[in-house]
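Design job #97: recover the sequence.
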């Protein structure tokens, strides 16, 4: 299949404003959008810039807006999109070059929820690790699947309107530790979620859930975090 690939470009060292590049590439049945981007860069335009690492949906580095939806390029089959594909950087994040956005504010929000186990209590006397039943582990299983790709936060209209919103990805991380039976740091995980930039800015728009490549029930997780805060978990 011959594919018309349209890519939004930006390079402040070349032009002050963004522009579009158009490429025509032959796609095999198993090709993913990432395969087309790699071939466009290797064969047609070496200046084209994008992030990718694992190429298997694990690292989260190649999140971008593909035909209007946030997706991982390495998990998006060309044949599902048809012969016209438009690729843009994630919305709401500062573009550094072409499809590469500045992830630092996103990662600062991630760090703000202290995304690690907090428990200063002594370990059990028998010297074994802190134990957890399968049901307790299952309680937060969904939110352990996050790969920090940014698709959810960059799909949220509240985040677009106000880049100050901590965003769904950070709340997913708070959920992962709030509902871990071994954790004792609820107040520390939620401290950054209580002000005007926090969890109450969520308007239950669901775009985050629809865009998550890991199919995490993000909006539900956000509702559970809100409830935990209200109930003083
Ligand atoms: Fe990506 Fe999903 Fe994690 Fe959001 S919750 S950063 S969309 S993996
Ligand atoms: Fe935004 Fe998701 Fe809430 S799209 S408003 S974070 S439900
Ligand atoms: Fe790692 Fe796509 S390159 S998730």
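Job complete. Output follows.
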């Amino acid at each position: 299949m011959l594919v018309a690939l349209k890519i939004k470009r930006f390079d402040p060292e070349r032009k002050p404003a963004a522009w579009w590049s158009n490429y025509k590439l032959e796609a095999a049945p198993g090709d993913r959008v990432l395969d087309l981007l790699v071939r466009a860069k290797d064969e047609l335009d070496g200046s084209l810039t994008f992030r990718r690492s694992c190429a298997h949906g694990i690292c989260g580095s190649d999140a971008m807006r593909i035909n209007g939806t946030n997706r991982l390029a390495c998990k998006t089959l060309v044949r599902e999109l048809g012969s016209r594909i438009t690729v843009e950087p994630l919305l709401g994040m500062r573009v550094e070059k072409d499809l590469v956005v500045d992830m630092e504010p996103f990662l600062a929000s991630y760090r703000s929820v202290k995304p690690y186990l907090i428990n200063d209590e002594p370990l059990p006397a028998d010297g074994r690790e802190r134990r957890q039943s399968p049901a307790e582990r299952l309680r937060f299983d969904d939110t352990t699947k996050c790969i920090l790709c940014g698709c959810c936060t960059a799909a949220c209209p509240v985040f677009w309107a106000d880049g100050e919103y901590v965003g769904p990805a950070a709340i997913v991380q708070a959920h992962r530790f709030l509902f871990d039976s071994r954790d004792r740091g609820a107040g520390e995980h939620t401290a950054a979620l209580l002000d005007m930039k926090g969890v109450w800015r969520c308007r239950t728009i669901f775009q985050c859930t629809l865009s998550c490549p890991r199919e995490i029930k993000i909006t539900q997780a956000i509702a559970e975090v809100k409830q935990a805060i209200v109930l003083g978990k």
